[in-house]
Amino acid sequence: MSASLNDITGKIIESAMKVHSALGPGLLESAYQECLFYELIKRGFKVEKEKPLPLIYEEVQLNCGYRIDLLVENSIIVELKAVNELNDIHLAQILSYLKLADKKVGLLINFHVKRLKDGIKRVVNNY
């Protein structure tokens, strides 16, 4: 698939909105993750779920248990939440994941909202 990052993020957001419309808020993050994974695969995207993300410090690689919720087209990190509200620590988490994975764009999606558009943040790695 050769689409721009903007096109892909748009399709991810459309897919997330479809999942949210069907399920609504109030479920566990894992339920939204499975359904969004399914929806993206159905749309023809290459998606990796719970992709391990090592921390590399100088010559040392630490397998600390960090995992990317969804990696779409080996380009876009999708971090999912089901929380009352997104806060700075959630933004710091996805920025750290973008930096560690050397990716440019991520989506932070909180499904625990009445309108999903209020729970989506597009995040760009400027490092």
Structure commentary:
This protein has 127 residues and is of the alpha+beta class. The protein has one domain (5-124): Trna Endonuclease, Chain: A, domain 1. 37% of the residues lie in helices and 28% in strands. It has helices at residues 5-23, 29-42, 88-101; strands at residues 47-52, 55-57, 60-62, 67-72, 76-81, 105-110, 120-124. Strands 1-4-5-6-7 form a five-stranded mixed sheet, sandwiched between helices. Strands 2-3 form a two-stranded antiparallel ribbon. The radius of gyration is 14 Å and the shape is globular. The protein starts with a helix and ends with a strand. The mean pLDDT is 95.
Question: Strands, helices and their partners?
Answer:
Blueprint: H1 5-23, H2 29-42, E1 47-52, E2 55-57, E3 60-62, E4 67-72, E5 76-81, H3 88-101, E6 105-110, E7 120-124
Parallel strand pairs: 5-6
Antiparallel strand pairs: 1-4, 2-3, 4-5, 6-7
Helix pairs in contact: 1-2
β-strand percent reads 25-35%
Kindly state the number of beta strands: 7
Shape: globular
* CA-CA gap between termini: 26 Å
List keywords for this structure.
127 residues, alpha+beta, Trna Endonuclease, Chain: A, domain 1, 5-stranded mixed beta sheet, two-stranded antiparallel sheet, 28% strand
In short:
The chain has 127 residues and is of the alpha+beta class. The chain has 3 helices and 7 strands; from the N terminus they run ααβββββαββ.
